[in-house]
Specification:
Layout (H helix, E strand, L loop, with lengths): L1 E10 L2 E7 L1 H6 L5 E5 L7 E4 L2 E3 L4 E7 L3 H8 L5 E2 L1 E6 L10 E7 L2 H4 L1 H10 L2 E8 L8 H5 L4 E6 L6 E2 L2 H10 L6 E5 L2 H11 L6 E4 L15 E4 L2 E4 H4 L2 E3 L5 H8 L3 H15 L5
Parallel strand pairs: 9-10, 9-13, 10-11, 11-12, 13-14
Antiparallel strand pairs: 1-2, 1-7, 2-6, 3-4, 3-8, 5-6, 14-17, 15-16
The structure holds flavin-adenine dinucleotide and FE2/S2 (inorganic) cluster.
The site of FE2/S2 (inorganic) cluster (FES) has 12 residues, from loops.
Length: about 280
C-alpha cells in the first residue's frame, strides 16, 4: 500500500500524483519506472518515476488518463492508498558527460523526460530541451524543465504556443545549424520517437528512445513487453525501457500496441460505468 499525498490535474487528461514511497524514492534513478495496481480489482500498469524526493520519501508519477486502469488510478483521491506499488524497475538511463544533449518530450512524455534533463544538467552537459503537444492547453512542465535546460523550445501542432509544427522540425533545424550534438533522447508517442530517429540516423547522432510496450509482470518473466532491437528480441521491462532508437523495430511495436484495442475499450467502458455507479 502507498498513500497518495497530493493529487493535481496538469491538463484536461493528465494527472500528477505525489506518493509516499520512501524505499522507491531512495533507489530510483532516471529512466526507471514503477508498476501500479491502483485497487485490488484493477490491472497492473507501468508508469515512469517522474521525480523522487528522498528527504520527503515521496515519488511523483504523471499519467495520461487513456483507459481502464488509468481511469481507476485517477479516481483515487488525495489520502487514498494505492493497493500495490512495485519499483524501481527497468535499467536506469546512461548519464555521462557528453557535451550537448538534446532531450525531446512529446505529450505525456514531456513529464517523463524531467529526470533525464535534471541528470544531464547536473553532470555538466549542455541540455537543449524540445517539448511538443497538440496545442497550448496540453503543454505541461514548461516551467519545471526550463529550470534545468540550457535552452527550452516549445512546439505545438496548431501553433497556439511556441513554434507551429513538430518537435522533429526543431530537431532538424538544430542539426542543420551545424551544432555538434553528442546524443538525442526522445520520449513520447511511437510515431514521434520514430521520426526523431529517422532525423538523426543519416547524421550518425546517437538517439535513445524510451519504449512503451504493454507490460504484465515487468520483471522479465512473461515476455509481454518484447520488442525487437537490432534484430534481437529484448524484454523492455528489464533490458529497457531505453534502447538505441536506430535499432528499434517501430513497426512491430506499433502493431503490438494495437493488439488489444477492443478489449481495452470494453474494460474502459465497464470501469466508467462502475465509477458512475451504473454497474456492479
Ligand atoms: C516503461 C513504461 C513507462 C510508462 N510511463 C508512463 C508515464 O509516465 N505516464 C503515462 O501516462 N503513461 C506511461 N506509460 C504508458 C502507460 O503504461 C499506459 O498508458 C497504461 O498502461 C494504460 O493503461 P489503461 O488500462 O488506462 O489503458 P489501456 O486500456 O491499457 O489502453 C488504452 C489505450 O491507451 C493506449 N496505450 C495503452 N498502453 C500504452 C502504452 N504502453 N503506450 C502508449 N499507449 C498506450 C492505447 O492506445 C490503448 O488502446 C508507460 C509505459 C511503459 C511501458
Ligand atoms: S513485462 Fe513480462 S517480461 Fe517484461
Amino acid at each position: 500500500m502507498a498513500r497518495i499525498i497530493k493529487k493535481e490535474l496538469l491538463n484536461e487528461n493528465v494527472s500528477r500524483l505525489t506518493v509516499d514511497a520512501p524505499h522507491i524514492a531512495r533507489a530510483a534513478r532516471p529512466g526507471q519506472f514503477v508498476v501500479i495496481i491502483p485497487r485490488e480489482d484493477a490491472e497492473r500498469i507501468p508508469l515512469t518515476i517522474a521525480d523522487a524526493d528522498v528527504a520527503k520519501g515521496t515519488i511523483t508519477i504523471i499519467f495520461q488518463i487513456v483507459g481502464a486502469t488509468t481511469t481507476v488510478l485517477d479516481s483515487l483521491p488525495e489520502g487514498a492508498e494505492i493497493a500495490h506499488l512495485l519499483g524501481p524497475l527497468g535499467t536506469p538511463s546512461h548519464i555521462a558527460k557528453l557535451g550537448t544533449v538534446v532531450v525531446i518530450g512529446g505529450g505525456v512524455g514531456i513529464a517523463e523526460i524531467y529526470p533525464a534533463v535534471k541528470a544531464h544538467k547536473a553532470i555538466g552537459n549542455e541540455v537543449i530541451t524540445i517539448i511538443g503537444a497538440r496545442n497550448k492547453e496540453l503543454l505541461i512542465y514548461e516551467k519545471e524543465l526550463t529550470a534545468y535546460s540550457s535552452r527550452l523550445v516549445v512546439t505545438t501542432d496548431d501553433g497556439s504556443a511556441g513554434r507551429k509544427g513538430f518537435v522533429s522540425d526543431e530537431l532538424k533545424d538544430i542539426i542543420a545549424s551545424g551544432k555538434k550534438i553528442a546524443e538525442v533522447v526522445a520520449v513520447g508517442p511511437v510515431p514521434m520517437m520514430r521520426v526523431c530517429c529517422e532525423t538523426t540516423k543519416p547524421h550518425g547522432i546517437k538517439t535513445v528512445v524510451s519504449l512503451n510496450p504493454l507490460m504484465l509482470d515487468a520483471t522479465g518473466m512473461c515476455g509481454v513487453c518484447r520488442v525487437t532491437v537490432g534484430g534481437q528480441i529484448k524484454f523492455a521491462c528489464v533490458e529497457g525501457p531505453e534502447f538505441d532508437g536506430h535499432q528499434v523495430d517501430f513497426a512491430e511495436l506499433t502493431a503490438r500496441l494495437k493488439g488489444y484495442k477492443d478489449v481495452e475499450k470494453q474494460a474502459h467502458d465497464h470501469v466508467c460505468r462502475l465509477l458512475k455507479g451504473l454497474e456492479k
